[in-house]
Design a protein that fits this description.
Elements (H helix, E strand, L loop, with lengths): L8 H26 L10 H55 L6 H21 L1 E2 L2 E2 L13 E4 L7 E4 L3 E2 L2 E2 L1 E8 L2 E6 L1 H11 L5 H5 L1 H48 L3 H27 L10
Antiparallel strand pairs: 1-2, 3-4, 5-6, 7-8
Helix pairs in contact: 1-7, 2-3, 2-6, 4-6
């Protein structure tokens, strides 16, 4: 070998090896500290891009799942109130049956029916979810009767919920009616006609009996809405289950790309630290090698 003292190539090579080993030690220790395999784009460019895309989709699906939950809560609110409407209609029918009894006091029966009509009007006027009315047509809905919910990661992944217009009848519309203490806007003719007749019913058995025809149409609309609500809740349950599975699978893929294998990184850290100690020792020896030239000057 040539003896040169101005440029100690052995020491330079040892230094470069030590520098590379120290970089590996730092990378392993950073992964242990953060718990992540990818801490910068340079660690894995393609993996970083795929992982961030997955992370974005997870967040969008989580928002969509929240929307699905809100939709189910909204439908459950409407369902509860419509069941109350059904119960009141049944109560009114029993009053109509009572009026056919010659011994009944039809003036009191008429008063009871008017009170129940006022309660029906209250339900239609006050049933709300997050301050949005659920049983009448409003500008907050698409087309006046449709709620639109994003139920997936894509903006086009939407479910249009319309339970107030069904083949059995319609609850919402453009009619306005004043019943007792309430003025209701945005109801169908079936609802407005029934509430108008109930609120102004006479005291004769014939007048009370004539309410049955209006109640039939009204009740058909309520039944159609309840059936539609049940169908929409079933669809939302399916979407909720799908989103739960999709989120879990996406998070698993993201974890495989970004999360560090802590046991492996600990092994690497120990291995590289030992290599760094060896490289430091070799660098020290290589750095002293040019002193051999001094023996030529004795």
């Amino acid at each position: 070998m040539a003896f040169r003292i101005n440029t100690n190539m052995g020491a330079i090579r040892a230094y470069n090896a030590l520098k590379a080993v120290n970089a590996r030690v730092s990378a392993a220790q950073l992964r242990l500290a953060t718990g992540k395999r990818i801490n910068s784009v340079a660690d894995d460019t393609s993996g970083f891009a795929v992982g961030k895309s997955l992370d974005q989709k997870v967040k969008l699906m989580q928002s969509a799942q929240n929307n699905v939950g809100s939709a189910k809560d909204m439908l459950s609110t409407a369902e509860t109130q419509l069941i109350s409407v059904k119960d009141i209609i049944t109560e009114i029918r029993s009053k109509i049956a009572d009026s056919s009894n010659p011994a009944s006091d039809n003036s009191r029966v008429s008063g009871d029916i008017k009170a129940l009509a006022n309660e029906l009007a209250s339900i239609f006027n006050s049933t709300k979810f997050n301050n949005t009315k659920l049983l009448v047509s409003t500008s907050a809905m698409s087309g006046g009767t449709t709620f639109s919910f994003q139920t997936g990661a894509e903006s086009s992944d939407k479910l249009d919920v319309n339970y107030m217009q069904t083949s059995s009848g319609t609850l919402a519309g453009s009619n306005t009616v004043t019943t007792g203490d309430f003025t209701i806007t945005g109801i169908s003719s079936a609802v407005s006609d029934a509430l108008t007749q109930l609120a102004s019913v006479g005291t004769t058995a014939a007048a009370i009996g004539s309410l049955s025809a209006y109640l039939n149409t009204f009740e058909n609309s309520v039944d159609g809405a309840l059936s539609s609500i049940g169908n929409f809740i079933q669809r939302l349950d399916i979407k909720d289950n799908f989103l739960t599975s999709a989120i879990a699978n996406s998070q698993s893929s993201y974890s495989r790309l970004f999360d560090a294998d802590m046991a492996l990184e600990q092994l690497n850290s120990t291995k590289y630290q030992i290599s760094a100690q060896v490289a430091t020792s070799i660098l020290s020896q290589a750095n002293m090698a040019p002193q051999q030239i001094l023996s030529l000057f004795r």
